[in-house]
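Sequence in, structure out. Go.
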Amino acid sequence: MKRRTTDMLVTTEELGGPLYHQSGATLFAKGEPLRHEHIDLMREHRIDHVFEPEENESLTAFLQTARFERLHPKDLLSTHKLAQPIYSGDGRLLVQQDQSPTPAIKQILIQQKIAEVLVYKNEVREDVAFEFVRGKREIQKKSTRRMLAKMALQQAKMMLAPETISEKTVDDLTKNTAEMNVMPEGEALDRLVRSNQKARSAEDKSEFLAKFRESCTITKSLYESIANGELIDGTKAMDVAKSAVYMMVDDKDLFCNLLNVSVAKVDPLIEHAVKTSFLATNIASAMRYGDDQVFEVSVCALLADVGMKLVPESIREKQGELSAQERAKINAHPAYGLQLLKKLQNFPKTALFTVYQHHERCNATGYPKQAEHDRIHRYARLVALADVYTALTSERPYRGAIHPYNALEMLIKASAGKQFDSELVKGQLRYLSLFPVGSYVELSNGYIARVVCADKTNYSKPVVQPLLDARTMRRVPDIRAIELSKSPDVKVTRAVDHRQIDAEVSFGF
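Output:
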């Protein structure tokens, strides 16, 4: 390991390799930014040097050296703490791990001719590294929020005159192929997005659930005001989008888990709108769109189904088969949505496309205009994916929710049939994985596990947390999460519906 003093560190937007604390704890992962605020924070915590691995160096060897030292029993002090249990030659336990050596214990070890013992280094305080990482996380949050607040102000300046909003406007704009196939621009928001393979605390879950409920409340007020003909400031939609982006950047996998949540007494239309916006935010980031583009997609997705407010609830929530007249009402909601946008101030122009085209399909089988791939705005193609997945995995009056694995399979097959943009489906899989975060799977090693993190390159091999014995259905002791992409002997044998194991949404997550 190369030892580098804090004063030697140079700021960069992307570290070429990890940096470690003397305790062996990771201070920075490869690819993370290193900023002046981070260096100041290290000085504040009196971290005067860090360690950088040499090429092909064993991390295990460094951790052994950093955290432990080997001593002869006669050199043990009462302030030491044993880092491993010690056994006699015939297999009897002499001293337990984490025990401090008393004079009697030292005498036993010497009599047993124990050559050396492993102890924790007294001067190494791992908690300092943990405190630093927490502080670094707060710095990142503040930096991200400043960036997003600036971005939101830029978006708020976007404004369309009501008289310019019509079906003809959209039809005319679709003739500009370059504008329809908008590609990623600027720094990808994906650079800020974090995954977390550890179990979340109750506070983490409560915070995200509270933000989800707040987003539903804001969206309900927005939809109702627009439907009542009031002139509304579109920054309400931006508030929901900002919250979505904040959560995704903070913990992408916990954010994805909100797609499995259902809030009591919330209008299904509102819950659908919020979840569609959340999922579209994920897909846009996975496609490496820039900061402002992801924010824009999030706003557009939230507004996509606003026209459904003009469809009678009796039709929206009908349990039986729809009549031809009722189906026509449903199919008219994209056009209704354009009418309602005339009552909204400060929203992205691209919302025209997502509102009017999110039911079009790339093979010209959608509505309202049976448009083909190149005549459908890319944001509308993206929101269409989020809209369908959210609908499939949600309870409906006429059917139960479809398992996330089966829903993704359906989208993959539909993209093979050219209904959906296959590149966008791959982007969706990059963040959700074939086994979405929050879903359950049975493993070949006999456990039922919960998916806690997606693998960005291997959709079928997420990170999973074993929870139950598949045979007895009993909880198992805490077991480390398994990265299936690095565990060739463990495979997913089947997806498990959470209702089959009587699991709650936040169970084990």
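Check: Residues 73-115 form one domain. Residues 217 and 263 are 11 Å apart (CA to CA).
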